[in-house]
Design goal:
60s Ribosomal Protein L30, Chain: A; disordered N terminus; alpha+beta; 22 strands
Length: 370
C-alpha cells in the first residue's frame, strides 16, 4: 500500500527569498487525540530551544476553525486552548508593523498555520486572518494523497522556493510546480514544518513612516494525524507517554488493549478490567504490557494488570470483564511476530508506526473462552 504523503510548498515573487534568519511565528502541535493546547513561538527556526522575544508576538491573534481563541502568554511563547473536539486548522497572525533593518524599512506580517487533517478548498477562506495573508494549507483531493498548496490573494505560486525544517537540522530547499505544489517527503519521518514568504515591492507610508515593501510570511506545522489519522496518532502519543518510545512490540500491546475494550464494551480505565500478559521475562515480549496499560488504563498499581511468566511459544494476553466474566485471549500472528523480533534500534520507530496503522487481523488472533 502506498504511504500517505503530503506536498510541501513555499511562496515567492520576482524577488529572491531572503535567507532564513529572520524571526518567524511557529505553531507546535502535540500529536494525539487528547491534545487540547497549541503553542506558538517566535524564533529563527521551529526549534523550541531557539524561542525568544515573546514580547514581539504577545499581541498575536489565534483562531481554531476560524473562531477566536484566548491566548495565554508564557515565558518562551504563547499558548491557546482548543475547543472541545479540536479543529482541522489553527491559524495565527501577528503584525510587526514597520521594521527598520540594515538601512531598509519594510512591513512584516506573520501568519502561522497548524493542521491535524486535510480540508476542502472552500474551507480555506474562513480562518480568522485576512484574505491578503499567505494561505499555506493541506487540502484533500478526490483521489490520491492530500496536497499542500500555497495561495496568495487566491492565486497559486509556481516555481517558488520552500524551506523545509525537520528536527534541529538545517532546512532543505525545493521548488513548487505550476500549481504551487511539490513532491513530498514521508510525513511519518517528520515532524515537518515549512516556511513561506511573499514580498510585495509596492512602497508606501504607515503611521507617518515610509516603507519600501511588505513581507508576507507564513509557516505551516502539520501534525502526524494529517498523515496517519487521529486513531494512529493517539496510539503513538499514548504509548510514548507510558513507555517513552513507540516500538512495534509496545504498539502491538496497545492495539490488543484497544480491541479488547471494543469487544468487551468497556471504557478505558474501567475497574471491571483484568489484564494478564503471559510472556518470557525479556524486553520485547514484556514491552507489550506497557502498550496494554496505555490502551486500557489498567495498571499494576490498580492490581488489574500483571505479567505471568511463560515461554515465547506461550506468549499471549488474556483480558477479562470481571463483571460479566467474558474472557478474551489474544495471540500474535506468527508471521507478524517474526517480522518484529530482534530488530535493530534504529528501525524501532518506523516499525512502530507501521504496526500502528496495520489492521487487527495482521497483528493478532483473538478467541473468547466458552
Amino acid at each position: 500500500m502506498r504511504k500517505p504523503c503530503i506536498l510541501l510548498v513555499a511562496v515567492a515573487t520576482s524577488l529572491v527569498m531572503p535567507p532564513v534568519g529572520a524571526h518567524e511565528l511557529w505553531f507546535h502541535l502535540e500529536p494525539g487525540a487528547d491534545s487540547a493546547v497549541v503553542r506558538l513561538t517566535f524564533g529563527d527556526t521551529p526549534n523550541l530551544n531557539e524561542a525568544e522575544r515573546v514580547a514581539e508576538i504577545a499581541h498575536a491573534k489565534v483562531w481554531a476553525g476560524g473562531k477566536s481563541l484566548e491566548v495565554k502568554r508564557l515565558p518562551d511563547g504563547l499558548e491557546a486552548r482548543l475547543p472541545h473536539g479540536g479543529a482541522a486548522v489553527v491559524s495565527a497572525f501577528a503584525d510587526r508593523g514597520v521594521v527598520t533593518y540594515m538601512g531598509q524599512s519594510f512591513i512584516i506580517y506573520l501568519a502561522a498555520y497548524g493542521q491535524t487533517r486535510a480540508i476542502e478548498p472552500n474551507q480555506a477562506a474562513n480562518l480568522g486572518l485576512g484574505d491578503d495573508q499567505v494561505r499555506l494549507l493541506l487540502f484533500s483531493r478526490e483521489s490520491g494523497p492530500p496536497v499542500v498548496r500555497a495561495l496568495w490573494k487566491g492565486k497559486p505560486a509556481a516555481d517558488a522556493v520552500v524551506k523545509i525544517f525537520r528536527g534541529a537540522g538545517d532546512p532543505t530547499e525545493v521548488r513548487t510546480d505550476g500549481n504551487g505544489e511539490i513532491p513530498c517527503p514521508d510525513l511519518g519521518e517528520g515532524p515537518w514544518t515549512l516556511l513561506a514568504q511573499v514580498v510585495d515591492k509596492t512602497p508606501g507610508k504607515r503611521e507617518g513612516r515610509d516603507y519600501s515593501e511588505i513581507r508576507y510570511k507564513a509557516t505551516l506545522a502539520i501534525s502526524p494525524e494529517a498523515a496517519f489519522g487521529p486513531a494512529v496518532a493517539a496510539c503513538l502519543a499514548r504509548v510514548k507517554d507510558v513507555h517513552g518510545a513507540a516500538g512495534p512490540w509496545v504498539v502491538a500491546g496497545y492495539r490488543i488493549g484497544e480491541r479488547a475494550l471494543k469487544d468487551l464494551g468497556l471504557a478505558r480505565h474501567s475497574h471491571d478490567l483484568e489484564v494478564v500478559h503471559h510472556c518470557p521475562p525479556e524486553v520485547q515480549y514484556s514491552c507489550i504490557t506497557d502498550g496494554l496499560q496505555a490502551a486500557t488504563g489498567a495498571s499494576a498499581g490498580k492490581l488489574n494488570l500483571r505479567i505471568e511468566q511463560a515461554t515465547a511459544d506461550g506468549l499471549k494476553t488474556v483480558v477479562r470483564d470481571r463483571k460479566t466474566n467474558r474472557c478474551l485471549t489474544f495471540t500474535l500472528k506468527p508471521e507478524f511476530a517474526r517480522s518484529i523480533v530482534d530488530l535493530p534500534h534504529e528501525r524501532l520507530d518506523a516499525e512502530g508506526r507501521r504496526v500502528a496503522a496495520l489492521p487487527d487481523e495482521a497483528i493478532f488472533s483473538v478467541s473468547e473462552a466458552k
